[in-house]
Amino acid sequence: MGFISCYSELTVQLSEKTSCSNHKHVTNSVSTNLVPSIQTSTTSTYKTTLSTGQCHVITVTWHRNAATQSLSITSGDELDKGFRLNTNSRLFRRKLRGSKVFEINNIKFEVFYDLSSAQYRAGVEPVEKYYVLVMVDSELGLFIGDMCSEEPAFKKKVNTHGAEFLLVSRQEHFYGNTLYSTKAQFLGSGTCHDILIRCTDDVKDPTLSVCIDKRVVVRVKRLQLNFRGNQTIFVDGLSIDLMWDVHDWFFGSGSGSGHGVFMFRTRNGLDNRLWLEDKVNTKDENKEFCLLVYATKV
User: What is the rounded CA–CA span in Å between residue 242 and residue 189?
Assistant: First the structure.
């Protein structure tokens, strides 16, 4: 589902601005007995700027279902090219450590990785004891993880200066109950915040609640009528547009199921536009971030 085409000026409701700091009087978190939904995939998009001034977009996707678990890395719109790895090879740990070279538009990418001891929790991404390093034309383009190889050649790559990379957007897919838990760092050097999205199962008056760090920042009553909308909140001194579309939860083809979308998008300066697929090209790039949560209700 496109997250632009389904919105119109008539369906988006503008609400009053809400600040996390103004919600100290609100009961801490949303009480619930629901089991959190299962995260099935994440896609993180990074903007890398080399020392030459050239910019590249690197996309990292972690995916898991009942049969497979994988990692893929690509650049730009070349989704069918790049790096692919089956990370479910627990019996063949040696395959979870290595490197691969590929080219996209005459740009050389080298991926070095070690997931042989990676530790996972509830999500699809490892949380510790792993690394993934991407070189772009022999220059450090991206590094994620918490450990490094002891090989001198690897340390030399990690210590390469010049390139800068910044997380600019992230997509997360969930499947299960209407309870979604994730984290987001809206400012590049800011705090990582806990985000909880929950819809009550009250048939007569379903209510949507969004919490950041256990504080309710948005509560939408009569959700079956207000299935699309947006509200501005403030986190880390940033204006963030929180938008939702849960139309299919109530009016989709499957009874009681469907696909919902939640978007957290930081604004830049005087930018008051909503739901734009702008390219990353603003002066204050450190304040650019978009979190998109796809929530499948079953």
Answer: 21
Nearest residue to 4 (alpha-carbon basis) of 273, 287, 238: 273
Residue 181: what residue type? S
pLDDT value at 196 more than 70? yes
Render pLDDT for 145-167 as a digit per residue (tens, 0 to 9). Answer: 988 776 666 676 776 655 688 99
CA–CA separation, 285 vs 199, rounded Å?
A: 33
CB 166 within 8 A of CB 55: no
Q: What is the three-class DSSP state of 90?
A: coil
Residues 75, 61 contacting (CB under 8 angstroms)? no
Alpha-carbon dihedral 158, 163, 169, 175, rounded to 10 degrees:
-20
How confident is the model at residue 285, as a pLDDT?
45
pTM (two decimals): 0.83
Q: Between the CA of residue 167 and those of 46, 114, 184, 297, what are the distances in Å? A: 4, 21, 11, 28
Please name the residues in contact with 62: beta carbons below 8 A apart, sequence gap of 6 or more: 41, 42, 70, 71, 87, 124, 125
Instruction: Give the side-chain half-sphere CA count within 13 A for 279.
Output: 6
Residue 76, sorted as left (phi over 0), alpha (psi -120 to 50) or beta, turns out to be left
Q: Using H for helix, E for strand and C for coil, what is the string for 127-168?
A: EECCEEEEEECCEEEEEEECCCCCCHHHHHHHCCCCCEEEEE
Residue 257 has phi, psi (to 5 degrees) of: -125, -175
**Tokens representing 150?**
């002891």
- Report which of 161, 189, 191, 195 is spatially closest to residue 293, judged by C-alpha positions: 195
